Amino acid sequence: MKVQIAEPYQHFEEELVNAITNFGHTGKILVKGSRNSIRKVKIQGQRLTIKSFQLPNFINKFVYRFFRKSKAQRSFEYGQKLIEEGFLTPKPVAWIEERKFFSLGRSYYISKRLKNHFTFRELIKNPDFENHEEIIRAFAGFTHRLHQADILFLDHSPGNTLIKKEKKGGWKFYLVDLNRMKFKKLSDREKINNFSTLSATPKMLDIMATEYAKLEGWPIKETIEKFKVADQNFRKRKSRKKKLKKLLWKKT
User: CA-to-CA distance for 155 and 176, rounded, in angstroms?
Assistant: First the structure.
């Protein structure tokens, strides 16, 4: 087992390893997906979440063991980099890997647990959400700051931004599910496409496109149209993938 713990939490090691060893019976389940699962635990008074990544396939067990960082390690390192760049994410605590000599088993990412938050998805579901438009504009500004910092968050989906209201007004945005990110200069197309994965409503797209255009100095009407095209293209690709999966499932 490979264990890497952030400096302030070194004294958690024994309890973290025990939590991973008994993961199925540790704390309470938050998310139980077909691939990954998340549990919440409390260690030495600290509220933590542990994300267990799915077991890699036969080839990736070898690739992740020797040639590529695991999803847990990338999540930890990207989380630290985000914080260094002035962005928010639940504080990275540790990453742990189950290893054999020639292969990688499951990997786990541990972070502090955030309280009193909601996600972008709730804004999609509830157009009457309090301060709805204000939050969406602030979110567009937040995404613009990411892009200005040469950060492309590839999993910019409705559930991967946690939102909290600041005591003095305004909004804080915390990124989660961090293992897929790129740090590079972004083209205009990449910037626009980054919004398409949010599955936002047409009205929300208009608001975000307008705000983003103002920040970039782009023509507003043209930007709104480009946002809509990117959104439609993403939805079409997503639909094709679903149909293909169903077809393959029927054949098996």
Answer: 9
What is the token pair recorded at 66?
A: 């020797």
207-251 confidence digits (pLDDT tens):
999 999 999 999 999 999 999 999 999 999 888 887 777 666 665
Chain segment 97-147, per-residue pLDDT in tens: 888 878 888 899 999 999 889 999 999 999 999 999 999 999 999 999 999
- Residues across the chain: 252
Buried/exposed 205-225: b ≥16 CB within 10 Å, e otherwise = bbbbbbbbbeeeebeeeebbe
pTM of the model: 0.91
Q: Give Cα separations from 170 to 65, 87, 138, 159, 185 (angstroms).
A: 43, 15, 8, 20, 28
Comparing C-alpha atoms, which of 69, 66, 88, 67 is closest to residue 79?
88
* CA gap 215, 146 in Å, rounded: 13
Q: Please give the structure tokens belonging to residue 36.
A: 């990954």
Tell which CATH classification among 3.20.20.80, 3.30.200.20, 3.30.70.20, 3.40.50.2000 matches the domain 2-112.
Answer: 3.30.200.20
CATH of domain 118-242: 1.10.510
- In this structure, what DSSP letter does residue 131 have? T
Q: What is the largest CA-CA distance in the chain?
A: 57
List 92's β-bridge partners, or say none: 111
Structure tokens, 92: 């990275």
Q: Which residues contact 105 (CB under 8 A, 6 or more apart)?
A: 55, 61, 97, 98, 99
Which spans in 25-131 are helix H? 58-66, 71-84, 120-125
Whole-angstrom Cα distance, residue 97 to residue 203? Answer: 43
